[in-house]
Automatic annotation (TrEMBL):
The lineage of its organism: Bacteria, Pseudomonadati, Pseudomonadota, Betaproteobacteria, Nitrosomonadales. One of its GO terms (molecular function) is heme binding. It holds the Pfam family COX1. It comes from Methylobacillus rhizosphaerae. Gene3D superfamilies: Cytochrome c oxidase-like, subunit I domain. The chain crosses the membrane at residues 37-56, 87-106, 118-141, 153-174, 186-207, 219-241, 253-275, 281-303, 324-345, 365-385, 397-422, 442-461. This is Cytochrome c oxidase cbb3-type subunit 1.
Length: 493
């Protein structure tokens, strides 16, 4: 039997444990049960996306024009850059992840969202904490630790309470589930909330000093990516890929290998950021070993997701949600393998303290996390609002500008970072030479930042049209963004 791209074998679909037949009315009930917190989270996330974009552009432009807007202390690079990081990680990504979690759990647990009002209040408390933290940060009050700059006395308690309230809704929904089998996305989402609270509280404990503080800082910073941002977004990708193409996940066993290997090895990885620092060698050796062992979950997830989509890549023409999910999945594999490589001492001595690190982080935080969330919003919002995205052109424009702009960003800073590192290692070459070697690449970064910003504006404007325009009629039918698989039967020869 020959099955063309975009078609699904009936026998294979019948054997799926994941794609259980649920009525459209049933799914609509689950979606509407979390409508308020889901929409609230996405609305706040989009606002933070705009704020973080402006702060990021200013940070980039200051590399090309150091005196730009330097008359006020709160606009200096030392305050703008960490404000950009926190706005994007805790404002845009984390708040959008709250909404993704609250939308996924009712569907996968086959029950209405529990404690939805608690989740909504949690999102507002989280947002209040972030606003307090960023205002204090721009005023010069910082804890001085990367990813932990927000004030631990005034901002961090609100973040803890907010995340705990959203997590309580997630876990209460899980406890009320009407299914016996738990799909892998449930594992990732449910685990991510206690993981985040544990590492965030540990990272903010006030009695670490000096070298201990640096070690705890990178224990948190690295795990915030791996056990928080990665966990929820892998859950989203694991849901979107089989759901959109109408095909079960390739291997449930591989998905669990990926989950448990991530839980086992990732927590020990952070110390490779301190190679060459004054910390015990056993900590560095343990971190490098754990980083190498991360090849297990990375390969397991990569194979599983690729084999799920293989033969169905043509469906990406019909679904921006699938397109972004596939790019995000590939980016997760790429950034993870890149991270394993840079944990090696021979590579780290070149890339450490260079712009390569920024390129690497954006491959993870943007090409993986942000594109995954964009894909999730393209899929989720029409089902919650019950109306279609108004413009195919705006969707294409958004994907091309953000994906292409970030590709240019990562390539430019990657090349510039390597040249910078080699210059720093060259005997007899002054520090000024390493700075000069990065100038053209930093200019390319600023150009790419403008391209990405235009893409963000297109997405924000399109989201506004979807949510608030009255010109578009509501519908209960799947919007055009979902690829509807064509079921075929065997042909008689």
């Amino acid at each position: 039997m020959t099955i063309q791209q975009g078609q699904v074998d009936v026998k294979q679909e019948d054997n799926s444990q994941y794609l259980n037949k649920a009525s459209a009315m049933e799914m609509e009930t689950y979606d509407q049960s979390g409508r308020q917190p889901v929409l609230l989270g996405f609305l706040i996330a989009v606002i933070w996306l705009l704020i973080g974009t402006v702060l990021g552009d200013l940070s980039s432009f200051k590399f090309d024009h150091p005196d730009l807007l330097s008359g006020q202390a709160y606009l200096t690079f030392g305050r703008i850059r960490p404000a950009h990081l926190n706005a994007m990680v805790y404002g845009w990504a984390s708040t959008a992840m709250f909404s993704v979690s609250l939308w996924l759990m009712p569907r996968l647990c086959r029950t209405r969202l529990r404690w939805g009002r608690v989740a909504s209040c949690g999102i507002l408390v989280w947002t209040a904490g972030l606003i307090v933290g960023l205002v204090l940060l721009l005023q010069g009050y910082s804890d001085g630790l990367e990813w932990l700059e927000l004030d631990r006395m005034w901002a961090d308690p609100l973040l803890v309470v907010g995340a705990a309230m959203v997590g309580a809704s997630v876990w209460r929904t899980l406890a009320a589930r009407n299914v016996h089998h738990l799909y892998v996305s449930v594992w990732y989402v449910a685990a991510s909330y206690p993981w985040f609270l544990i590492i965030f509280l540990a990272g903010n404990l006030p009695f670490y000093r000096g070298v201990e503080s640096a070690a705890v800082n990178w224990f948190y910073a690295h795990n915030a990516l791996g056990l928080w941002l990665t966990a929820v977004n892998l859950a989203l990708i694991y849901y979107l890929l089989p759901k959109i193409i109408g095909r079960p996940i390739y291997s449930y066993w591989l998905s669990l290998v990926g989950f448990w290997a991530l839980a086992l090895f990732y927590a020990l990885n952070g110390m490779h950021h301190l190679i060459g620092g004054p910390i015990p060698s056993w900590m560095i050796a343990t971190s490098i070993t754990a980083s190498i062992m991360m090849v297990i979950p990375v390969i397991a997830v990569g194979i599983n997701q690729h084999m799920t989509v293989v033969g169905r890549f043509g469906a990406m023409r019909y679904s921006p949600a699938l397109t972004l999910a596939v790019i995000a999945a590939m980016s997760y594999t790429a950034v993870s393998l890149q991270g394993i490589m840079t944990a090696l001492v021979s590579v780290n001595r070149i890339t450490h303290f260079t712009h390569w690190t920024i390129a690497h982080s954006h491959l993870g935080l943007y090409m993986f996390v942000t594109l995954s969330l964009f894909g999730g919003m393209y899929y989720i919002l029409p089902r919650v609002l019950k109306r279609e995205w108004p413009s195919r052109r705006l969707i294409r424009l958004h994907i091309l500008l953000t994906g292409g702009g970030m590709a240019l960003y990562i390539i430019a800073l990657g090349i510039g970072g390597v040249l910078q590192g080699l210059s720093l290692l060259t005997p007899g070459t002054g520090f000024e030479a390493s700075v000069a070697s990065t100038k053209p690449w930093l200019m390319l970064r600023s150009i790419s930042a403008v391209i990405i910003s235009v893409g963000h504006l297109a997405f924000i404007y399109h989201s506004y049209l979807l949510a608030f325009s009255r010109k578009h009629s509501t519908t209960q039918l799947p919007p055009f963004i979902e690829f509807k698989p064509v079921l075929v039967k065997e042909r008689k020869s």
